[in-house]
């Protein structure tokens, strides 16, 4: 999907077309691709939620609309004046692709929740799962650096830390989190900040508390929580804004909305962010439990179709008279704690003997039961089923490290990706988060799971590291891999391992104490294996009509050029073509600069479809489209023939015989 095209299509036009040309528009930056609506995601599945303009976090080009609620009372005006000083604009860069997040540079919003310690609450899709660098701008345009101290593995919130001593010209205050005050009918304001330049104050009324988390297609999505719904018509850059009531309390966190023009917005409840903040204040770990099962809220009428009995429904309605639905299993991961015990469509009745219908209470039980067991009572087709499950650590199935080697980056498969594609986390293969360098797979830049390298299994990151340590530089190894969208197809390729342009094999580990990533070198590259002479014969085309012309096949070689960096405007990282041997004794080959665009590259020359030798650039014409490369003729034991070159210029109308190779690399002879 072309994220940039999608983002531009959703940008709002100037309010007055007549004056639109008086001043140039701001330069468009790239959007936060992981939150673009997917054509095969939300809409294709009939879901009505996908992130609108502010999902891209692209304030610099979209901007928060300068909208202020009309005819606000004096009480609201006083509240907003207090809230505005707590809201910050966050300028950030996610420096490399990691898990569901691409490398981006963008802006978002946050608000101070602890002025003494310097904590800011914002969205998880802003903080991201990988390396992060950023700074925040306060209302008076003071700025300071921010560092992530927590990002939730599932829910869409993260906490940043800043130095309160760096803010010298305004008193720091914090918004109080009050999730209990979010109720249907409550009037709210969404206060956002556009790069420290514009203030947006949007009004709305909470209409729902029980909406399921919106699905944004591929990439990061929240789940196992309810969302709050209101019609505030928020747009670009509002993610991370506080949703406040008339008393100035934060009752929710702005998180998402719709892309179809509707004014609907989705807010994250603050129950779990408040718990995480309290744990961080006490310097305690934020425990998160999981049974690797996604639940979804379904109304009672749908639960009855799934087998909810009248007796169970009556008990739930009497215990929770205001509830309209129950939790139903939506996705159960293979090989997870709930696998074989819980099935899709099971209706959750009780946990530890307690009737339960809310995500918040389920989260509380799971988070307090990490490493122990829980007992569930579920209904399946009208029958009661009791199961006892082990509760796993959610942080353990969320990657906090990656390895960069041979120009690519890898980490273990995350719970986010596994849940989206319903695949097992255990032994799934190592996830290639940056498909580049030696591991540049065809067809997609992300979503690849490497199964084996050099015929050795790589079920996880630790095993992959040990396998890669032993592979010499410039080796050609067999790599098998699958894509998350198609786990039934095993792809096979021969990869050229580069440990000379990309010498270091480095491990990066997230450090939540400092907000940085700690890098360590794992191993030095193994020297390349010395090449040995090899024998081969060229293809025989005895039935061809033009024997003399066909014999030139002995002068053709196939050339593969791999460019570790894109230079001089050349758009490709790898090119494959052919060259003509002009001196077999010295190993000189002439080829096109469309194949070898510059000499900072690795050149492989294939002779007689069998012998692969390294090549190097001897000469590149600065203007004309040819280059001369050379291989070591001592390594080639094949009847290579020096091409006989014409000494006179060809004339129009002359009869010639064309010899070349088609797209299937097969020889073609044609009189022309």
Which strand-content bin applies to the residues? 35-45%
Strand pairing plus helix content: what structural class? mainly beta
Return Rg in Å: 30 Å
Low-pLDDT stretches: 1-70
* Main sheet properties: 9 strands, antiparallel
Q: Give the rounded overall mean pLDDT.
A: 85
Shape: elongated
Total strands: 39
Question: Helicity level, as a percent range?
Answer: 10-25%
- Helical stretch count? 10
Q: Between the first and last Cα atoms, what is the distance in angstroms? A: 42 Å
Fold blueprint:
Layout (H helix, E strand, L loop, with lengths): L2 H7 L64 H11 L2 E8 L9 E11 L4 E4 L1 H4 L4 E6 L5 E9 L6 E4 L25 E8 L3 E15 L13 E6 L10 E3 L5 E8 L6 E6 L1 H11 L7 E2 L2 E7 H6 L4 H10 L5 E8 L14 E5 L2 E2 L3 H9 L5 E8 L2 E8 L1 E2 L7 E5 L2 E5 L2 H7 L8 E5 L13 E6 L2 E2 L3 H9 L6 E8 L2 E11 L8 E7 L4 E8 L10 E2 L11 H4 L5 E7 L11 E10 L4 E4 L10 E6 L3 E10 L6 E5 L4 E2 L19 E5 L5 E5 L1
Parallel strand pairs: 30-37
Antiparallel strand pairs: 1-2, 1-4, 2-3, 3-6, 4-5, 5-6, 7-8, 7-10, 8-9, 9-12, 10-11, 11-12, 13-20, 14-15, 16-17, 16-18, 18-19, 21-22, 21-28, 22-23, 23-24, 24-25, 24-26, 26-27, 28-29, 31-32, 31-34, 32-33, 33-36, 34-35, 35-36, 38-39
């Amino acid at each position: 999907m072309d994220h940039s095209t999608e983002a531009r299509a959703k940008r709002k036009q100037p309010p007055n077309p007549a004056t639109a040309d008086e001043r140039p528009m701001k330069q468009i930056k790239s959007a936060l691709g992981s939150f673009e609506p997917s054509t095969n995601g939300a809409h294709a599945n009939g879901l009505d939620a996908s992130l609108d303009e502010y999902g891209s976090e692209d304030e610099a080009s979209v901007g928060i609309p300068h909208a202020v609620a009309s005819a606000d009372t004096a009480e609201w005006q006083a509240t907003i004046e207090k809230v505005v000083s707590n809201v910050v604009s966050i300028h950030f860069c996610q420096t490399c692709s990691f898990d569901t997040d691409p490398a981006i540079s963008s802006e978002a919003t946050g608000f101070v929740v602890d002025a003494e310690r310097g904590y800011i609450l914002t969205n998880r899709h802003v903080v991201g799962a990988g390396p992060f660098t950023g700074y925040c701008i306060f209302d008076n345009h003071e700025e300071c650096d921010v560092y992530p101290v927590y990002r939730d593995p599932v829910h869409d919130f993260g906490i940043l830390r800043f130095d309160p001593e760096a803010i010298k010209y305004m008193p720091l205050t914090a918004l109080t989190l009050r999730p209990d005050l979010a109720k249907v009918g409550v009037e709210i304001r969404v206060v956002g900040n556009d790069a420290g330049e514009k203030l947006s104050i949007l009004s709305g009324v909470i209409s729902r508390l029980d909406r399921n988390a919106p699905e944004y297609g591929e990439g990061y999505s929240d789940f196992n929580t309810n969302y709050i719904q209101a019609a505030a018509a928020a747009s670009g850059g509002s993610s991370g804004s506080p949703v406040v009531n008339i008393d100035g309390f934060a009752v929710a966190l702005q998180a998402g909305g719709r892309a179809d023009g509707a004014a609907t917005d989705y807010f994250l409840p603050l129950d779990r962010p408040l718990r995480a903040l309290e744990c961080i204040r006490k310097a305690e770990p934020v425990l998160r439990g999981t049974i690797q099962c996604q639940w979804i809220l379904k109304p009672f009428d749908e639960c009855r179709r799934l087998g909810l009995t009248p007796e169970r429904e009556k008990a739930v309605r009497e215990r929770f008279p205001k509830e309209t639905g129950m939790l139903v299993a939506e996705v159960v991961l293979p090989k997870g704690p709930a696998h074989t015990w819980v099935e899709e469509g099971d209706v959750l009745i009780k946990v530890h003997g307690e009737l339960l219908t809310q995500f918040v209470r389920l989260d509380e039980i799971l988070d307090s039961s990490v490493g122990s067991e829980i007992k569930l009572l579920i209904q399946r087709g009208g029958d009661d089923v009791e199961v006892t499950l082990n509760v796993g650590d959610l942080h353990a199935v969320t990657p906090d490290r990656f390895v960069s080697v041979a120009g690519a980056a890898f980490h273990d498969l995350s719970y986010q990706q596994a849940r989206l594609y319903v695949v097992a986390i255990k032994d799934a293969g190592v996830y290639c988060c940056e498909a580049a360098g030696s591991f540049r797979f065809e067809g997609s830049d992300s979503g690849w799971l490497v199964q084996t390298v050099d015929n050795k299994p790589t079920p996880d990151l630790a095993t992959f590291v040990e396998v890669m340590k032993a592979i010499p530089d410039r080796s050609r190894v067999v790599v098998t891999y699958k894509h998350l969208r198609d786990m039934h197809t095993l792809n096979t390729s021969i990869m050229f391992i580069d440990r000379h342009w990309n010498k270091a094999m480095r491990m990066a580990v997230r450090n939540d104490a400092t907000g940085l990533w700690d890098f360590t070198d794992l191993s030095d590259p193994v020297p390349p294996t010395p090449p040995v002479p090899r024998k081969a014969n060229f293809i025989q085309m005895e039935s061809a009509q033009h024997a003399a012309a066909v014999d030139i096949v002995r002068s053709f070689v196939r050339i593969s050029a791999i460019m570790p960096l894109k230079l001089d405007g050349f758009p490709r990282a790898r090119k494959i073509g052919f060259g003509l041997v002009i001196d077999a004794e010295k190993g000189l080959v002439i080829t096109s600069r469309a194949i070898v665009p510059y000499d900072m590259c690795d050149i492989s020359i294939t002779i007689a479809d069998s012998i692969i030798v390294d090549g190097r650039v001897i000469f590149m014409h600065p203007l004309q489209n040819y280059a001369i490369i050379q291989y070591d003729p001592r390594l080639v034991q094949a009847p290579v023939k020096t091409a006989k070159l014409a000494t006179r210029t060809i004339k129009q109308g002359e009869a010639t015989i064309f010899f070349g190779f088609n797209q299937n690399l097969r020889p073609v002879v044609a009189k022309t």
